[in-house]
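dumping this here before i forget
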Amino acid sequence: MIPFSLRTMARIAALLMMIVAFFPLGAEGASSFTRSEETTVPLRVTSGSEQGYTIKVLAIRTDSALLIDLESFARALRLSSRQESGVLLLEETDNAPGSSCQLRTDNNFALIVPRDSQRMKRVVQLQSAPLIMDGKLFLPVRHACRLFTLWLDKDIVYDYSSGIMTAWLSGTRFGDSVGFVGVTRPGETVADIDGRKIPSEPGTVIKGVNVENKANGAVIIFSAAGTAVKTALTKPDETGRAYLTFKNASCNVDALTKLFSGGLVKSVTPDGSTEGGLRFALALDNQGYRIKTVDFQRDEKNNRYLVYVMSEADVKGIRQKEKELQIAKVLNSDIEKWKLNTIVLDAGHGGHDPGAIGGRGTREKDVVLNIVRDLGTLITQKWPDVRVVYTRKEDRFIPLHERGKIANRNGGKLFVSLHCNANNKRTVKGSEVYILGPHKSKAALSVAMLENSVITKEVDYKERYKGFTAEYLIMSSMAQSAFAKQSTDLALEVQNRIDRPNSTNGRGVRQAGFMVLWTPSMPSILVEAGYLSNPEEEKILRDRQEQTKIAYRIFMGLESYRKEYERARLATMGT
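structure:
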C-alpha cells in the first residue's frame, strides 16, 4: 500500500499535469504552477441609475493564474446553478424567457440553450476547458468574464490594476451585440454538453437585410446561413406592400426590422412567423415611383435571396438624387470632422511632483491617476469608436506646456484634466469644475495659482514660461473663446454629476487661468475632485471604490455632453 503522504503527492502531481494541459505556456495560466491558495475577487455589479452592489466571488490564486469558481460567479450575478452528472448547469432567473449555459470539465465548449424554442442554440468555444477542484469548476478570471459576456450579452470585465471584476447589467450592451456568437445554423449537427449529437432542423437563418437603390428600381438582398428553403413572393397590393415568405426559417426580428428613407423601398419588416416559416413585409413607395415588376431570385453561390423591384426611370429624378448624394457626401465629411472621436485625459502632477497632500498622507498624483485610468477604461468599454489618449498613465512628471501639446498632436476633441484641491481652511470641501478664463474670485485665483505652481518643479521654468504673462492669458482665453460654449456645457454636465452633498463651495462652473488649459485647441475643463485638506473628503478620495465612482460620474457627464453635442451638430448640418 502506498503511504498516505506519497498518495497525496501523487494526487498533487496529477493536478499539476491537468493544469499544464488546461493552461499552456503563454496563456493566462502558465505551466509554472507550484502552489495555490483560496481567495476572493470583488465583483462590482452596476444595474442602472447608479444602482448596484459589490460582492466577493470565490477564487483560487496560483503562481501563474487567478481562477474563478463559476458557481460563485453565477450566484454573484444572481443566476442559479446546479451540477448534474458532472455537468454544471447555469440558468438565468430574472430575465424572461432567458437561457441556460451548460459546461463540463473535459469540454472546451459551452452550450447555451434558450427557453424560447423559436431561438437558436449557441455553442461557444472556451479559451480553456474548466478545471475541477474540490467538486467546483474553475476558469481563469479573464476566460470566465468572456464566457459570461458572450452568454448574457453584457459587459463583464476584469481590471488587472485594481483586481476588481465589473459587470454592467443594465440596458443593452455598448458596441456590437455578441448575443449571436456561436449560433448553430439549421442543418448542422452539434455536440450537446453530454456528448450526444443534436440534429438541427434543416432550414435557414436570415442574417441580414440590405437594399441597393438603382436608377431603374431597387434590389432587396437577404443574406442567409443554412440550407436552401422554399420561398414565395406575393405581388404588391394597392398600398405597395409585398410579402416574401421563407419555409422553415428564422431570424432575429429586432435586428432585421429595417427602415429606409429617400428610396423606392420604405421598410422591410419580419411581421411574425407563419406556420413552419418566416414572412417579411416589403413596404414599397408606389406613390413616388411607378412600379413595373417585382421578381425574386436565389443567389446560390453566395446564399442570398434577391428581390428585384423595377420602376420606370425618371431622368430628372435621378439627376436630383445624384445631386443630393453629393451634398450628403460633403455633409458626412463635415460630420466626421466634428465627430467626438478622441478624448484626452490628463492626470495632474506625477513623478517628483506629488501635488496636494492630505493629513493622512494621501497624494494628489496617486488619486487622480487612478480616477483617470478608471475613466479611460469606462470610455473604451462604453464607446468603442472613441480613442482615449492619456498625458500620463503612470507615475511620471509631465511639464504643463507638454500636456496641451499631447492633446493637439493626437487630434483631441475634448481635454479633461483631473486634480484634487487643498485649502488652509480644513472645513472647505466639495468638487469644482473650471474652464480657462480670467479669474472672477479670489478663491478661483488661489486654486489656479496652486495648480500653476507646478512649473517651479520643471528645469529652466523661468526661461520656458517667461512669455506666459497676464496678457498671454487674455490671448489664450480669446483663442479658447471658439470653444467657450462647448467647454462651459461640458463643465456643467460634469459638475452636475460629481457634486457631493453638503459641499461648502456652491455649484456652478468657474473660470481661472490654469496654464494646463492654455495650449489645447479644443473644449477643455479642469476637474477638482475634492479637497484633500478636508479630513472627511480625504477619506473619500483615498478609497479605491470611491475613486471609481467619481470616474463613473464624470463619464456620465461626458455621455450627456456627447449626446447633446452630436445632436446639435447634426441639426446644424441639416441631416
